[in-house]
Amino acid sequence: MVKIIHITQGNADLVANYDPEIFDAPIVPDRLATFLAQPNHFMALAMAQTFGVGQIRAMMLHTPDTAPVLFIENLGVSPDYLRQGIATRLMQSALDWGRAQGCAEAWVATELDNHAALALYRRFECAPMEEVAYFDLSI
């Protein structure tokens, strides 16, 4: 049974044992602590017993002219656990958290050729808004 667990500063040690495929790079403990210390940040881990097989990260963005918006920053599931509803459950956990924080909508981005992600997001009754370009600026 895979459980979805909201990761906080109090249970951050759960992130120590995970499939490296679920993150873009290895987790750095100091960076994890900084992320979790922010009240507008959310992270959940899909746990198969004591092993992380999926994760989602999101941030609540405050703007001066709209209600807070939830930005789904990263979502990953172990290849061995695909097609089991884990991504859907992770996504729902982030949306539920965002709703509880007062967010009226959520944003998520993916490549237009990422058919698995597009199918997942359509389950939440949404469609791509438009094609956009993202730029990686060094600062």
Please render the helix and strand layout as text.
Blueprint lengths: L1 E5 L22 H9 L3 E8 L2 E11 L7 E9 L8 H15 L4 E4 L6 H8 L17
Parallel strand pairs: 4-5
Antiparallel strand pairs: 1-2, 2-3, 3-4
Structural overview:
This protein is α+β, with helices and mostly antiparallel strands. It has one domain (2-122): 3-Layer(aba) Sandwich (Aminopeptidase), CATH 3.40.630.30. Helices cover 23% and strands 27% of the residues. The protein has three helices and five strands. The chain has helices at 29-37, 86-100, 115-122, and strands spanning 2-6, 41-48, 51-61, 69-77, 105-108. It has a five-stranded mixed sheet, with helices on both faces. The longest helix is centred in the C-terminal third of the chain and has 15 residues, at 86-100. It is globular, with a radius of gyration of 15 Å. The mean pLDDT is 89.
List keywords for this structure.
139 residues; Aminopeptidase; five-stranded mixed sheet; globular
Summarize the structure.
The protein is of the alpha+beta class and 139 residues long. It is built from three helices and five strands; from the N terminus they run βαβββαβα.
